[in-house]
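The following record pairs a protein chain with its ligand, flavin mononucleotide.
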Amino acid sequence: MAAGRESIGNTLRVAFVVCLACAVVVSTASVALRPAQLDNRTQYRQINILQAADLYQPGMDVRAAFAQIDRRFVDIDTGEYVEQPADYDPVRAARNPETSRPVAPDPASIRRQADVAEVYLAYDDDGNVRRIILPVHGYGLWSTMYGFLALEPDANTVAGIGFFEHGETPGLGGEIDNPRWQSNWQGKQLFDDDGEVAIRVLKGAVGEGTPGREHLVDGLSGATLTANGVNNLVRFWVGEAGFGPYLQRMRQAYQDNGDGAI
Ligand SMILES: Cc1cc2nc3c(=O)[nH]c(=O)nc-3n(C[C@H](O)[C@H](O)[C@H](O)COP(=O)(O)O)c2cc1C
């Protein structure tokens, strides 16, 4: 009897049954938790958008706050709004040669970009644009950094910046998540008087009397390579090959109507 229980066949049978039971538990949990995972991911992204836009308060009803934010799609070449299905995913579109183009020159090291980008618009109580929120991404030292750059309705003044995904070193490049460094960006002007991209992350701190300091952001001490990556990606995305045509339309609309609506 004891010998039968300890036979190789029996051991394999028991191992198989245990594996099967575990597989059923794991796959059931995975399927059952999938909606909750997707929900959490969506909420995490929404919190990041609100944070970048400086509209987030801890404990707030994120879903309700986000219901006030419009997701729009922008033709990268013309800067005009276009229609897309609600499930349009610019990251997936950037991988498809039919819906994207190679980037050259490629200062942000992203290789391809989608022909249609998404933007988020937050409104004030009177229905005027309060923030223009642009998804941005580009390579740092170790990783592609994904984040949001939020602008005031003039489409020139930075309201905030934040990254929701990156693999930079905590304490070094990871300081891009430090609210103190991010607050450096607030109030900075993207464009000079000629409409050229002028925002720049320096190596070191911006001095009190530095000319053009309204366009200059403090670097990250000990993490200049990541800071350079942020500089490159921001300048790329607000430039001609990125949201430049869209931002130009928004700046013009703000000058004409004062509310940034196009
Ligand atoms: C283990 C390790 C991790 C590092 N991680 C980063 C990083 O995430 N971002 C970064 O810019 N520099 C990082 N560095 C430092 C860079 O190699 C480089 O020295 C630094 O970016 C130069 O910045 P500094 O001129 O401000 O000192 C790391 C260095 C080491 C040894």
